[in-house]
Design a protein that fits this description.
The structure is a single chain. The chain is of the alpha+beta class. The protein has a single domain (3-97), classed as 3-Layer(aba) Sandwich (Aminopeptidase), CATH 3.40.630.30. Helix content is 22%, strand content 28%. It has 2 helices and 5 strands. It has helices at 38-50, 66-74, and strands at residues 3-8, 21-29, 56-58, 81-85, 93-97. The strands form 2 sheets. The protein has a 3-stranded mixed sheet with strand order 1-2-3, with helices on one face. It has a two-stranded antiparallel sheet with strand order 4-5. The radius of gyration is 14 Å and the shape is globular. It starts with a strand and ends with a strand.
């Protein structure tokens, strides 16, 4: 496998997501194919296909995962918020907005 991306609908762990949104991720590219633009291409493709039926796409990336951040930026995504997770096995993620659009 060279790359995979998972597209998820809204669900309880991300209460900030609207019904008109999807979450892209996790996604991964094998090391020998990284740096070739494959991940940004796939993210752009997913967003263009879902744009027909959804208004927003979220990608949740750890702040220390610079490679994923760069791929998301190259795909045209912007930093909109940062989040935190509530404690516990079934913790939820919440956001703090960086920008309003």
């Amino acid at each position: 496998m060279v790359h995979y991306s998972i597209v998820l609908p809204t669900y309880y762990r991300f209460p900030f997501m609207e019904d008109t949104a999807i979450q892209i991720g996790p996604y991964w590219t094998t090391s020998q194919y990284r740096g070739r633009g494959l991940c940004p291409y796939v993210l752009s493709y997913i967003m263009s296909e879902y744009a027909k039926i959804k208004d927003y796409a979220y990608v949740i990336i750890r702040k220390d995962n610079v490679s994923s951040q760069r791929a998301a930026i190259k795909a045209g995504l912007i930093e909109w918020a940062y989040g935190f997770r509530t404690p516990g096995l079934l913790g939820k993620f919440y956001k703090r907005t960086v920008r309003e659009y």
